[in-house]
Amino acid sequence: MAAATVLCNTGLSIITNRIKGSGTEPAYFAIGTGATGAARTAAVTDTTLSSQSGSRVAPGAGVTTAQATTDKTNDTYRVIGSVTAGSTLTYDEIGLFDASTSGNMFVSATITPISVIAGDTVQFTIKVKFAN
Question: Average pLDDT in the 92-108 region?
Fold first, then answer.
């Protein structure tokens, strides 16, 4: 469960680029372990995770994206990402980016810590709902 989820300032730039027909879909999913110890909360100024665990997961390699309907037809951008732990650790933050390395952070979220052991697979769903 997300403790805090925000659309980052750099995410706004991704949206306007996509409207103009340029840029890359923010479909690269990352998970981290550094938020709890730092007592960090997701912020609109985030550009990276506190401590990313492993590589970002790419579309087609554990990430799917789609338009979804929450209140109005296709008002929600939905990303589902699966991560398999390589060791015993505790996940506490999630991010969506527009590149496999570097790039811009679209969404930042701090979550209720989830403890895993090597081989555990965890699936996360991030929904960004647009409203008028």
Answer: 95
Beta-bridge partner residues of 123: 82
Alpha-carbon distances of 32 from 19, 76, 97, 108, rounded to whole Å: 30, 24, 13, 11
Cβ count near 67 (within 10 Å): 10
Using the Cα atoms of residue 41, residue 44, residue 45 and residue 47 in order, give the sign of their dihedral. positive
Other Cβ atoms closer than 10 A to 19:
9
Residue partners of 86: CB distance under 8 A and separation at least 6: 54, 118
Residue type, 53: S
Record the tokens describing residue 47, joined without a space: 């550009």
**For position 92, what pLDDT does the model report?**
94
Q: Is the pLDDT of residue 1 over 60?
A: no
Q: Which of 66, 64, 57 is nearest to 101 (CA)?
A: 57
